[in-house]
Amino acid sequence: MQFEHLGARPRIHPDAVVAPTAVISGDVVIGADCQILHGAVITAEGGAITFGENVIVMENALIRATSTNPVHIGDHVLVGPMASVSGASVGDEVFLATGTRIFNGARIGERSEVRINAVVHLRTTLPVDTVVPIGWVAIGDPVQILPPDRHDEIWAAQRELDFPGYVFGLDRETPDLMVQLTERYGRGLARHADDRRVD
Description:
Helix content: 10-25%
Mean pLDDT: 96
Structural class: alpha/beta
Radius of gyration: 17 Å
Distance between the termini: 6 Å
Shape: globular
Strand order of the largest sheet: 23-22-19-16-13-10-7-4-1-24
CATH superfamily: Hexapeptide repeat proteins
């Protein structure tokens, strides 16, 4: 299913294959020989999404751009089932395994591997040929790659990256943070009310 969102509609190369249950919304460009499988959601929420050639997006993966963080995915990239890429840049020949999470402002260097259920956090840069092990967390620039049991170190780095401030423009110390966050974010998402199916 393809949708026009905020006046932009997907542009899909004629050699790409998109499953009928995939959703592609807004300012999305999909290159030659890409494969978008069932249940994948590719949504340009005010920022553009561009795919190179031979990108595979597997079942139930989510790729989301924001007005401040577009998404670019290079050539010969595999985005695994249930993976999530939000507002990030992914170099050529990258493997994002099942369940990986790539956050806003992240940059994934060429030929890197982010293995099953691993996380590349907000504004993190993975150099070329980096491997993030199964379930581990990559955070910062320069990057630290930490096992999940080192929560205190992960939190110390994550706190400095200021997720609510960077993504939602809100101070973490706001007493009603979730009230403001959901109301503000909800208003932005409500723009989908005017979407129009174009396929």
